[in-house]
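Hey L., structure's done. Input below.
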Amino acid sequence: MVTKTTTPKTHYATKNFKDAGTERSFIAGEEIKEATAGELANYVAAGAASTEKPKADDAAATETKQSGEKPTA
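Output:
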């Protein structure tokens, strides 16, 4: 069994994605909790996570872009 560890830095999802290995889903702008250091490293390398807290407007734009909806002004 793999133990989930808490890392010193908080990571946030930069886009909506599903981890195929763990079957967990993440929503853009939300904090990623209970992930191993290796999982976080993979998410960061793939551009799916960052330690920078997203602005509300950035998260909404990313979510809209991925859903195929047209952004509203």
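The chain has a mean pLDDT of 81. The two ends are 47 Å apart (CA to CA).

-- N.
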